[in-house]
Backbone:
């Protein structure tokens, strides 16, 4: 009964989406606003329908209704309740339903919030969003139906994939999906602008915050994904250049390029076509990435079991790409803004350099990710691109981007004199050099590390100086430092939010340099009472035990003492887990974590038959916590930049009007 | 192929423990062991290889029994005096180039090294010329607009921090 | 909202003069879009490829037999060389439980048909070489066995697991595919039928 209600709601949502697209199209064509409004209402109604459907699926999982195949696949009786809820996105069919729910939420929100001000764009927005929903709901309802019944009702389910039982994995997919589905809003508005021919920057104004929010969720998804890999996968790292990771990195890169270049359009009314292109590309990369991951076109550790959605999904992609490219081609003349550049040393030029570097990174990641298909097409043998190849190709590009990140904020619109830039950069450059030399004296040897540290320190100093300049000016007016900082950020949210984001990235960059170039590791088989030495650390193995965990889990836990320069600093309990039902092993490392480094221990092997012997693998990850700290700063900055601010909106609105009238703003 | 891989892994794990000791016994029957090989040496080699049956998992961190067996095979080979290069060649021959973290730099694979360089260089050339055009246009309009000089229009309010902040404070 | 305003807006836009630099961009855009779609589309077809079915020509492959194994005194052979003979192509692995079920049977049938136009081939899929050799010794296997070098043979035959057995007729066409362990009746019936053809 409950699954039936869920399925009926799902099919209804599918039907309502078709209606929404049709009535918006018809209303716009015939000039009858009633029909467009009806289309809007239909778009909003999809949300409760999909929510009901998802709710029914969760309820089925909670009720252990194993007559539903999906419930049997991802859940089991003994699973804790919170895992039963999150099992909603633990498999292909459920996660598509969840995806639909998130997309419907964004659609309903945008209808509620942006209706009155954009009546001319809305019919097209409804059509684009609804057609996307028709596709995804269609897949959920007819191809990957989560409510399919089993002929025989099993007594117990398979249980959730052990890899997905970690807290990080519980919030990581929703964040990614929020990021992915969120980009439908800017895409729909951009397409609406193209189709309607209303190519002023209204679509940008209306979607700027949506884009930033979608981008924030995508960033969060990426960071949490890294953290999850570090905590659960037990290989001492956080990013493996796996196709699935790349599939979410690529839209993030395109979105980052857009968030920068859009400022040129806002300030100088240039590069309109380019911005539309970037937004469209971002969303196309979202859809393409989702397709590749879910259809099994590219294999990955994280990919879903192969399913029948491939051909339908591919048809949708062909239509979507062709549709997008067609309208961009058709409106190319209307969009040919008079692009001008007063100087190579200007803010607008800096944003263009940023776009160039980011797109170069994107192109490389794209080629490498799709290389297995490409090489199989050409040579017949599936090629493979491992992490080292990515790192070699991308390191110089990322270095250039970090350097630009520091210098670009010093430039001004129109032109910046070279003297001014020199004056502003010479002392930070020297200071960064002094720090680098100091580190070399302390024993830093890799030239890559020297260059990296210099660039990151240099950019970090420049960014901090931007803060200082603002604070200093306010302090001269008698404000205490903290108030000055708070006011500065409150009044220029985007600018200082952006600087916080830059700070976050730079802090992360230190962490990445540390872990990439200075990771140490060792593996050894020892008896209890014996020890392993790595760096200044010594680890003593005290013993191990095996016990039954929740559900079908069998845990093996070792007890080790960690000594730093002879002093006991931590007692760790690395575990190796076995989910007996599926026979899937898991390695849960334990770490002694400090600001300078992590002492990260993995229990590789322990057998009860030789109870006092075990194999350990130890990693020493310098500065790894800087990666997470940088991530937090990054998220904070994005929140600052995207926090709603009525007053600022009005100021920006006024300035845009001036731009539109031909008066150049600041 | 994915189904195959997952079936493989599943079976490997089920059977794993029972097969493990067979290998251990076989060690003696191979060529004479030249020296002891530490886990670290094995991992150094395994790091540059990927598990042939699981997707995108480096061999040194792969947790399945099959990978453990492959690591033992690396140990045996190193003990018999083979170099890391020999081991890579052996694995590539047995399981295909896709188990190598760095594909061999030959044939079509050269694209992986050439593309980033060519793309950036070509991109820079076109991008540079495009920027040149933009600047020329900008200079052109300045002349048209009657200034007589090639100086582009200056922004009405310079983007100077101190001035901006002063302005803001005054507004307050 | 009125549609007129939209339409007039669009008309006005179309009047604006075309710009040359965008032409190149447009062509590039379509070429890249078409290229990506073609690549991904091919990838999709390729990913959904299934094993060659009954009646299809068996894909030709080369093999280099394990140490101590040979076919007609050759240490290496191609399926092509076996044209005119019945070929029983068996994929197995030392880690595979079900393969152990059929191992003795395969060897027994091989001995039974020795001297006739039947070749039995064992291909060790994704296996660790020493383990394969131990497995062969354990079951005293004498028919030609080879590792699946470069994982090439199994990917040509698109096997979905082990064991899988392909029965190839004298004409080089696949006559039957056995998923999972093969039983005595199927094995002897198939071989006899193919020998009779």
Residues:
């Amino acid at each position: 009964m409950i699954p039936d209600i869920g399925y009926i709601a799902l099919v209804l949502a599918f039907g309502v989406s078709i209606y929404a697209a049709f009535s918006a199209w018809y209303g716009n064509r015939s000039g009858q606003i009633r029909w467009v409004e009806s289309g809007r209402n239909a778009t909003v109604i999809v949300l409760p329908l999909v929510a009901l459907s998802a709710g029914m699926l969760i309820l089925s999982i909670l009720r252990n209704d194993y007559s539903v195949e999906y419930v049997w696949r991802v859940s089991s009786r003994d699973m804790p309740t919170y895992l039963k809820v999150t099992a909603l996105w633990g498999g292909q069919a459920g996660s598509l339903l969840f995806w639909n729910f998130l997309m419907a939420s964004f659609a309903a929100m945008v209808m509620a919030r942006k209706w009155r001000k954009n009546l001319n764009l809305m019919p097209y927005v409804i059509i684009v969003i609804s057609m996307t929903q028709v596709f995804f709901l269609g897949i959920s309802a007819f191809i990957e139906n989560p409510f399919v019944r089993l002929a025989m009702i099993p007594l117990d389910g398979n249980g959730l994939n052990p890899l997905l039982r970690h807290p990080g994995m519980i919030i990581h997919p929703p964040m990614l999906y929020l990021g992915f589905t969120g980009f439908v809003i800017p895409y729909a508005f951009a397409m609406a602008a193209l189709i309607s021919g209303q190519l002023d920057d209204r679509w940008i104004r209306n979607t700027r915050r949506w884009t930033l929010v979608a981008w924030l969720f995508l960033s969060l998804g990426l960071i949490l994904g890294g953290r999850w890999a570090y905590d659960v996968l037990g290989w001492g790292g956080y990013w493996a250049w796996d196709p699935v990771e790349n599939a979410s990195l690529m839209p993030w890169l395109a979105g980052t390029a857009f968030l920068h270049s859009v400022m040129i359009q806002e300030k100088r009314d240039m590069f309109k076509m380019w911005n539309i292109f970037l937004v469209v590309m971002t969303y196309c990369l979202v859809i393409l990435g989702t397709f590749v991951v879910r259809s099994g076109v590219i294999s990955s550790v994280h990919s879903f079991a192969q399913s029948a959605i491939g051909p339908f999904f591919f048809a949708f992609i062909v239509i979507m790409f062709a549709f997008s490219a067609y309208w961009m081609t058709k409106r190319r003349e209307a969009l040919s803004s008079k692009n001008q550049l007063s100087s190579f040393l200007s803010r607008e030029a800096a944003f263009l350099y940023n776009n160039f570097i980011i797109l170069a990174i994107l192109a490389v990641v794209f080629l490498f990710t799709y290389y297995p298909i490409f090489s199989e097409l050409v040579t017949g043998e599936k090629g493979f691109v491992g992490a080292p190849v990515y790192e070699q190709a991308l390191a110089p590009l990322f270095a250039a981007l970090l350097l630009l990140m520091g210098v670009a904020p010093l430039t001004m619109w129109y032109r910046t004199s070279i003297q001014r830039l020199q004056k502003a950069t010479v002392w930070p450059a020297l200071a960064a050099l002094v720090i680098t030399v100091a580190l070399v004296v302390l024993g830093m040897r890799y030239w890559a590390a020297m260059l990296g540290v210099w660039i990151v320190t240099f950019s970090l100093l420049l960014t901090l100086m931007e803060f200082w300049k603002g604070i200093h000016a306010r302090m001269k007016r008698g404000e205490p430092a903290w108030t000055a900082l708070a006011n500065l950020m409150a009044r220029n949210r985007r600018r200082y939010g952006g600087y916080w984001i830059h700070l976050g990235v730079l802090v992360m960059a230190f962490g990445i340099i540390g872990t990439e170039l200075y990771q140490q590791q060792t593996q050894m088989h020892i008896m209890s009472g014996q020890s392993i030495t790595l760096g200044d650390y010594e680890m003593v193995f005290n013993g191990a035990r095996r016990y039954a965990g929740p559900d079908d889990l069998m845990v093996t836990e070792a007890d080790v003492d960690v000594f730093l320069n002879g002093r006991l600093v931590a007692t760790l309990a690395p575990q190796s887990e076995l989910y007996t039902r599926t026979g899937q092993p898991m390695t849960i490392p334990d770490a002694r974590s400090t600001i300078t480094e992590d002492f990260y221990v993995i229990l590789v092997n322990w057998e009860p038959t030789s109870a006092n012997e075990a194999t350990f693998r130890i990693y020493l990850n310098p500065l790894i916590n800087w990666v997470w700290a940088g991530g937090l700063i990054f998220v904070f900055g994005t929140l600052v930049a995207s926090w709603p601010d009525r007053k600022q909106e009005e100021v920006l609105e006024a300035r845009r009007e001036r731009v539109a009238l031909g008066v150049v703003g600041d | 192929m994915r189904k195959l891989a997952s079936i493989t892994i599943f079976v490997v794990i089920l059977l794993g423990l029972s097969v493990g000791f067979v290998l251990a016994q076989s060690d003696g029957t191979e060529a004479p062991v030249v020296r002891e090989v530490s886990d670290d040496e094995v991992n150094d080699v395994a790091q540059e290889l990927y598990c042939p049956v699981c997707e995108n998992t480096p061999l040194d961190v792969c947790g399945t029994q099959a990978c453990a067996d492959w690591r033992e095979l690396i140990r045996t080979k190193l003990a018999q005096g083979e170099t890391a290069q020999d081991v890579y060649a052996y694995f590539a021959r047995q399981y295909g180039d896709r188990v190598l973290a760095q594909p061999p730099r030959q044939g079509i694979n050269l694209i992986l090294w050439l593309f980033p360089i060519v793309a950036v260089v070509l991109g820079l050339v076109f991008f540079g010329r495009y920027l040149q055009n933009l600047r020329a246009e900008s200079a052109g309009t300045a002349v048209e607009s009657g200034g007589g000089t090639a100086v582009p229009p200056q922004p009405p309010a310079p983007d100077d921090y101190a001035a901006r902040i002063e302005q803001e404070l005054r507004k307050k | 909202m009125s549609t007129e305003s939209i339409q007039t807006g669009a008309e006005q836009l179309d009047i604006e003069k075309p710009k040359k630099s965008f032409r190149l961009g447009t062509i590039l855009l379509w070429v890249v879009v078409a290229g990506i779609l073609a690549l991904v589309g091919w990838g999709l077809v390729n990913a959904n490829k299934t094993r060659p079915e009954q009646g299809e020509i068996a894909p030709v492959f080369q093999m280099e037999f394990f140490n101590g194994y040979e076919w007609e005194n050759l240490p290496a052979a191609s399926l092509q060389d076996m044209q005119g003979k019945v070929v029983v192509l068996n994929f197995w692995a030392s880690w595979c439980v079900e393969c152990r079920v059929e191992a003795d049977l395969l060897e027994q049938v091989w001995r039974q048909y020795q001297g006739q136009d039947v070749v039995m081939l064992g291909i060790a899929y994704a296996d660790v070489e020493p383990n394969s050799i131990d497995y062969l010794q354990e079951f005293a296997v004498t028919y030609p066995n080879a590792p699946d070098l470069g994982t090439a043979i199994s990917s040509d035959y698109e096997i979905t697991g082990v064991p899988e057995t392909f029965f190839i007729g004298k004409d080089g066409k696949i006559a039957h595919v056995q998923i999972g362990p093969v039983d005595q009746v199927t094995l002897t019936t198939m071989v006899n039928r193919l020998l009779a053809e």
In short: Strands of chain A lie at 520-527, 531-534, 537-548, 553-564, 567-572, 575-579, 584-588, 590-593, 597-606, 613-622. Confidence is low (pLDDT under 50) at residues 662-666 of chain A.
